[in-house]
Amino acid sequence: MKVLAVVSEIFPLVKTGGLADVAGALPLALAPLGIEVTSLVPGYPSVMDALADAVMVRRYGDLFGGPARLLQGRASGLEIAAIDAPHLYARPGNPYIGPDGRDWPDNAIRFASLAAIAADLGAGAVADFVPDIVHAHDWQAGLTAAYLRYREIGGARPGTVMTVHNLAFQGQFPAALVPTLGLPWSAYTPEGVEYYGAIGFLKAGVALSDRITTVSPSYAAEILTSDGGMGMDGLLRARAPDVRGILNGIDDTVWNPAADRLIARNFNGAHLAERRENKVALQARLGLAAEPDRLLFGVVSRLTWQKGLDLLLDAVPDLLARGAQLALLGSGDATLVDGFVAAAAANPGRVRCVIGYDETLAHLIQAGADAILVPSRFEPCGLTQLCALRYGALPVVARVGGLADTVIDTNEMALANGVGTGLQFAPVTRDALVAAVQRTVELWNEPEAWRTAQRNAMRTDVSWRRPAAHYAALYREVLAERAA
Ligand code: ADP
Ligand code: GLC
């Protein structure tokens, strides 16, 4: 089976968050199941650099205002089809945001291009690569199904899957762009791309794809409610029989404490003592007091409202009053950045915050912190808690979305039965977070129970093995339906 994945970022070529991790790992997990994935991505500079030996498979004289070429090649073990369109993508830095911190003003056509070429390939434009399934990820790829439906491309009719990684980002653009995007006005209906008086990229994908998936079973349920549906719950409820929640995994070769070259000392569940050297290294690197017996909380996150880190900021005094340290790595909203920088300045040796994006430090925090805090208000899946499980840092998480689905709370019954892997709290408030910090401290003071939870965490299967099988089954279901 051939699958065309359509995605705006892919690890290790370009990454702003978990979407890239998923796009970079899922194809590798599907390969052993007989599913060949080619990933269509915009030709940002980092992508073009990685694809030095690619071959040109198609030329476009005018792709929304400039010439473009489709290049096919391999990079980091992935089959990549890259859209070389300098007028759209030859810009350094973040794929979505310009140097002024605002969305690129032409994002509508930048990502319509991605979808239009996906539809072209889906319809069989390149003879030796005709996909059976076109799998679009997030709003940037959302128009794919719309182009397949409304453009007169003819040709093959692939099955279509739309995966929602985060319903908070829907890609809405003015209705006046309909002709600019090369869509007929007949597409601008409630059944098509129209969404609250504008064009909805994600909405189009949700309305027009054969199946809609999201990245955990709990989030799949949450988005059908008015609380979690972010305006799209009506449509999602109408499509409920076609909505699935498939949990993410992580690439367990990238995230492997026994072989990770980005950490100070390798370790595994049978050699937990060695883990301590990573804590010592982390404290030293960040300038935290060299006190390996002190409970050290870590955070690796985008600093946004979604992630609930304003609650953590408010809880810093409570965390310190309980004797803990805090190491945070993140970037994002200015108020949160300022808040955490101030908290670190006020508490030298106890709180350190590194503002920025740093892959190496992210690994060291996972390997060296005792617990990883994820107080998200909503979380479609979340990957940092999966990394934490694998690295024996107990995840302390809000009981929402994928966090609820992946962490087993070490409550009294779990303790009695030795099955907990972390801690959950609800509701997502400062007080509940502080209560969870208190429970973490109590567990820390029972070293035997802590080690049991750590070993349980490290034994958890966070790989792509099971999720990949679910995607494979879903693809087959779509193809069977098409054939019927
Ligand atoms: P989201 O995609 O919503 O940001 P996820 O938990 O799914 O959240 O994925 C986040 C990914 O980005 C993880 O791989 C995490 O390690 C990484 N990450 C987030 N912030 C940083 C940062 N400041 N530096 C390095 N890696 C980061
Ligand atoms: C989004 C979500 C996150 C999820 C990631 C990958 O960024 O916020 O929860 O893990 O996509 O699916």
Descriptive report:
- The protein has 484 residues and is an alpha/beta fold.
- The chain has two domains: 2-249 and 465-483, Glycogen Phosphorylase B (Rossmann fold, 3-Layer(aba) Sandwich); 272-459, Glycogen Phosphorylase B (Rossmann fold, 3-Layer(aba) Sandwich).
- The protein contains 18 helices and 18 strands.
- Strand 16, helix 13 (384-390) and strand 17 form a beta-alpha-beta unit.
- The mean pLDDT is 97.
- The structure holds adenosine-5'-diphosphate and alpha-D-glucopyranose.
- Alpha-D-glucopyranose binds next to helix 1.
Biggest sheet descriptor = 9 strands, mixed
DSSP, total strands: 18
Number of domains: 2
Radius of gyration: 23 Å
Q: What's the arrangement of strands in the largest beta sheet? A: 3-4-5-2-1-6-7-11-12
**What spatial form do the alpha-carbon principal axes imply?**
globular
- Which ranges are low-confidence, i.e. pLDDT below 50, for 5 or more consecutive residues? none
Count up the helices: 18
Protein structure class: alpha/beta
The CATH C-level class name of the largest domain: Alpha Beta
Integer average pLDDT: 97
How would you concisely characterize the structure shown here?
The chain is α/β, with parallel strands linked by helices. It has helices spanning 18-30, 45-50, 86-89, 107-122, 144-150, 201-208, 217-222, 233-238, 275-286, 309-321, 334-346, 359-368, 384-390, 401-406, 412-417, 430-444, 447-459, 465-483, and strands spanning 2-6, 36-42, 55-60, 68-75, 78-84, 133-137, 159-164, 172-174, 194-195, 198-200, 211-214, 243-245, 296-303, 325-332, 351-355, 371-374, 394-398, 423-425.
